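Late entry, evening session. Most of the bench is empty. Finally got around to the prediction I had been postponing all week. Sequence below, unchanged from the version circulated by S.P.
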Amino acid sequence: MLTHAPLARLFGGLLGLGGLLAAGAAAAVTQPMLVVDVDSGKVLYGQAATDPWFPASITKLMTAYVALDLVRQGRASMDQLLTISPEAAAEPPSKMGFRPGTQITLDNALKIIMVKSANDVAWAIGENLGGSVDGFAGLMNETAQRLGMRDSRWTNPNGLPDPRQWTSARDMAILGRAILRDFPGNRDLFSISAIQFGRSVMPNHNGLLGRYAGVDGMKTGFICSGGFNVVASATRNGRRIITVVMGQPSARERDLKAADLFDYGFGQSAGWGGQTLADLPASPVAAPPDLRPYICDKRRPMPTDSDSAAATASAEAAQGNADNTSAQLMAASAPPSAALAFATMNSAALRNRALPPRAPLQPVLVWIGRDPAESAIAANDDGAEAKPVAAKPVRAARTKVATRPAAPAKPAPSRSIAATGATVPQPKLLARQTGKPPAAATAYTASHTPVIAGAGTKTKAQTKPTETKASDAKATPKPKVAAAKPAAKKTKDD
């Protein structure tokens, strides 16, 4: 049995990434890892499984469970509208950038937090379903206790840094099993490869989806204080396994370790013997470690919890060099029996190792309002943060003034003027109105009649029936048409 075998010393591994940590700073902090058979609850592999850890955005799994539980109880519905408050809109990224007052269905909100991991939307779920974020945090804690998550403390629904909020690998495995067991009709929510909002397509942050055969959920998370975390589920030959990996220095290393743990777990017996999640002993550690100085070195670019498949080949190779050094240092501290699950991590081949390319995305449409036809939606040019905008009113076209010279004298038949329903009067009537001969009056009036895009628009613009010079065209003022302003007040995005 490999339970609680100390495979890795996190700070020792980070020496390969930063290269500047003193040996004294490399404290014995073990990265939590856990592999569990979903049906039996049997622990297939574990280390530091009950140690407290900052959850980051895997918190949103608890947010989703509480929301789905409220729907099951009839206290909420998937099509009810949630309103984005100023407080929700002010949450830092990752976010959708919705303006205060924007409304979105709970169904779309859950899809967004599972794929985009939007902090503003998760905050709105908490406010709307719990009456306040504190009220929703109370529901999270009550639910955790009922499920047997004895190591968890929740204060917010999105996982942004809070020294009072932590969980454990064991508790997240319990939560993952509860989601799959209690809401089988909502399992697809945790395996969406991408969402489409307006013109923006946003892939799931889970780098295992579409890259490791059988992976069908669940959620990733990253903050500097907790490193890169993931709760993932995979199915092979009808057997489902949940893997939890926490505290990794990069998304790539997190994904590779999770894949190795899946390989190891599927190779183990699915029997009912052995240790279960309920059997795991309490941790002697009183509070989670703060990894900020090691994960987010100010001299290096800020790490991101993005799909590692988007990395270029050169970046992948460069990261591989660092990860290989990290793996060697970690494996050196592990006993031989524990190294089975990570045999490939202690290898020079790691620098060229990567998961397969991601399968084509299958985006799921999300929108604001109750129905996609209710609002016009726009996205940023980079597609990173999509923004909703109010439906634009139809603008009247700028008034065009004819400047052609007078035509030879011909009887002018009646002809329509665009969009107005008016007609050019006949020659005799024009002669009485203008005091000119019939033919000249017809040509003069036709050259001075504006073409208008919308009925009811008035203009006094007139020009002589002669060739227009470029200098005159620049000097001629253009009529202004005021567009109706959207009702929603603009809010600066973070």
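Two things to note before I forget:
The chain is about 30% helix and 15% strand.
The first helix runs from residue 10 to 18.
Will write this up properly tomorrow.
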